Amino acid sequence: MSKITVIVPVYQVEQYLRKCVDSILAQTFKDFELILVDDGSSDNCPAICDAYAANDTRVHVIHQQNGGLSAARNAGLDWLFANSNSKYVAFIDSDDWVREKFLEILEQESEKHDSAITACDFVRQMNGETDFAEIITVPACAEIPAEDFWCERWSCAASACYKLFKKELFASLRFPVGKLYEDQVLMPHVIFQAKNVFFVDLPLYVYRYRDGSIIHGRWTPKQLDFADSQERQIVFFDSLRLYRARNKALLNYLCAVGGDLRLIKKTPGYGKSYAQQLVFHAKELKRKYGRDMRLPISHETYGAHLISHPLIFHWFVWKPYRLLEEIRKICKAGVCCAKKRIK
Fold first, then answer.
1. Residue 337 included in any domain
2. What is the DSSP string of 7-24?
3. Is 32 a member of any domain?
4. Measured between alpha carbons, how far is residue 291 from residues 181, 220, 247, 308 in Å?
5. CB 122 within 8 A of CB 38
6. What is the Cα–Cα distance from 208 to 96, expressed in whole angstroms?
7. 160 and 53: one domain?
8. CATH code: domain of residue 54
9. Which end of the chain is more exposed for a tag (fewer CB within 10 A), N or C?
């Protein structure tokens, strides 16, 4: 049996699927099996998957009714635990692709350090951008505590991609079905099973940014799932007393609320119910974690989002600022009075 199982959920990506699969089959590390999960695609993807399976014994295809990305990944995991004794599992999205040493380097570092999770960096490929030159440099691999990895490399940590996992991490875990940002819900439970993560500082994974993708398309109520995922993270991290990670989730939640409120106002037909729902949850979190939610507007990544809606601006920027100004005035007045008395 193969040492690594690669799971690729496939849905309506006929234009990109061959690039993805070809990049996997061209890996310098050969001891792997590829599970293509056709999630009810209505384009030519099912036939493409079957053609690859007919030409390469490492490729297995699962055809199922459309259930979403989580359901497709879960089908791959269920197949893995029922039919394979591979040691590792990796997830690759069907519109992305990987460098030819992706599996080789991650497997090599995983074996060297006996790591439960080995991750790599990634690079974004915009629509129309040409392919990138292959990497030939020797990788630098560093051991990072799980909470540091989550807080400092969040964009990498929060995704199921860019990593090689020991299979047993998913023995009792599956992706939540029916949710966007499903990685955001599951990955904390996976990452924090491991005390440390080994990180390869090379962009071995190429993430294709598509304007029409689920995440980057037009705003819909499903986008509220991101705020929901951050609420779940807050509860999870708080239960483990991982306060840095919890505060990271708080910051992400604030940004999501600010962004969603701004977009709801610009999206016709959705009324006030979604905005009211967001405001209600924000108030509840402010009540419970108010001290931690007073974040500086100067934060390098999220400052713009904090001022994107008057409510967020009032709670977390203007009120603290005015309070500081009042304190400064009081202190200044006290100093002036003291000087007069001395004179």
1. no
2. EEEESS-HHHHHHHHHHH
3. yes
4. 27, 31, 10, 21
5. no
6. 5
7. yes
8. 3.90.550.10
9. C
Domain ranges, residue 199? 4-209
Tell whether 49 and 175 lie within a shared domain.
yes
Ranked by mean pLDDT, the top range of 161-165, 234-238, 247-251, 314-318 is 161-165
DSSP 222: G
In terms of domains, do 107 and 237 share one? no
Q: pLDDT-derived band of residue 138, with 50, 70 and 90 as boundaries? A: low
Question: What pTM was estimated for this model as a whole?
Answer: 0.81
The answer to whether 124 touches 152, Cβ cutoff 8 Å, is no
C-alpha dihedral sign at 153, 158, 163, 168 = positive
User: What are the pLDDT digits (tens) for 62-80?
Assistant: 999 999 999 999 999 999 9
Distance of CA 137 to the CA centre of its chain: 27
Whole-angstrom Cα distance, residue 311 to residue 149?
Answer: 32
Question: Between 289 and 340, whose confidence is greater?
Answer: 289
How big is the chain, counted in residues?
343
Tokens of 181: 């940002």
Q: For residues 137 and 319, give the distance between their C-alpha atoms in angstroms, rounded to a whole number.
A: 51
As given in the structure block, the two tokens for residue 303 are 């400052």
Do the beta carbons of residue 135 and residue 99 sit within 8 Å?
Answer: yes
As a whole number of angstroms, the distance between CA 331 and CA 61 comes to 71
Dihedrals phi, psi of 241, to nearest 5 degrees: 60, 35
Specify whether the CB–CB gap between 44 and 34 falls below 8 A: no
Residue 336 inside a domain? The answer is no
Domain match, 98 and 119 both: yes
Pair 24, 16: CB distance under 8 Å: no
